[in-house]
Design brief:
The complex is a heterodimer of chains A (about 120) and B (about 140). Chain A is mainly alpha-helical. Chain A has helices at about 15-30, 35-45, 50-65, 85-115; strands spanning about 70, 80-85. Classes of the chains: A mainly alpha (about 120), B mainly alpha (about 140).
């Protein structure tokens, strides 16, 4: 089934890696800035250590597009602002993960076919 | 380090600074405090990555603010609806038509599959309507 065209995958354009990692991290539960950096490092098995410039650039765009929202944490001694996925953001993440799953399947099938030759 | 970082934030557009500068500084301080025990090699790498990130981030913020300023402020032409919304609506309508056809031809298994697809298509449409609001007045 063909997917609805989204803001980012118009003409099949995939999400950037920082955006995908941020959305994936927020899919579990809301997080503040530093918690996002730590979780992304964990998610990527230490491969990606996002700088604050990259993180807040991506967060700004996601806020403008309405994929995430910012809110104040009630009980915290450290950072007050946190971010969570909106329904739209969740849907876009789902679409991107479906796209990646489809691509991975096709890739593995071709590798298998080449090995069989 | 804190002062140098604060100084670099001047590279960003005013709107970005007003919204994020304090938070960025807080995250930077937390990250540098956490890595202090890692040694000077880590510190040098961290500082270089942060400077690079700030320069790249500031460039992106300026580009975004310039392109936002170029977007015309007038409201869209009457009857115009966003492309993705129109496509989602068409998908729901196509699904309903295919389902009706399948039922009329006693293809109940196919109708069941189409029904699942239709539910998914309606969910897409609902999410998009939430995004764009009710201003486009579409009925499905």
């Amino acid at each position: 089934m063909r997917h609805v065209v989204t803001q980012t995958n118009l003409e099949g354009k995939p999400l950037t890696e920082p955006v995908l990692l941020i959305l994936t991290s927020l899919a579990e539960h809301p997080r503040h800035g530093y918690a996002l950096i730590k979780d992304i490092e964990l998610l990527s098995a230490g491969r990606v250590r996002m700088s604050t410039g990259t993180l807040f650039g991506a967060l700004r765009r996601l806020l403008v597009d309405g994929w995430i929202e910012r809110f104040e944490l009630e009980d915290t001694t450290r950072q007050k602002q946190a971010y969570r996925l909106t329904a739209t953001g969740r849907r876009h993440l789902q679409l991107e993960l479906d796209r990646m799953k489809h691509l991975a399947r096709a890739g593995f099938a071709r590798l298998k076919a080449a090995e069989a030759l | 380090m804190r002062r140098a970082y604060q100084f670099c934030l001047i590279l960003y557009p005013r709107a970005h600074r007003d919204r994020f500068a304090e938070e960025m500084l807080q995250v930077f301080e937390e990250a540098s405090a956490d890595g202090r025990a890692e040694g000077w090699v880590w510190s040098v790498r961290f500082t270089l990555a942060e400077i690079g990130g700030l320069i790249g981030g500031a460039a992106g913020a300026w580009l975004d603010s310039r392109s936002a300023a170029r977007v015309p402020s007038q409201s869209p032409a009457p009857g115009w609806i966003p492309h993705e919304l129109a496509e989602a609506q068409e998908r729901v309508e196509a699904n309903v038509a295919a389902m009706v056809h399948a039922i009329a031809n006693h293809q109940f298994e196919r109708a069941r599959v189409l029904s699942n697809q239709e539910r998914e298509a309606r969910e897409n449409l609902r999410v998009l309507r939430e995004k764009y609001g009710d201003e486009y007045g579409m009925n499905v």
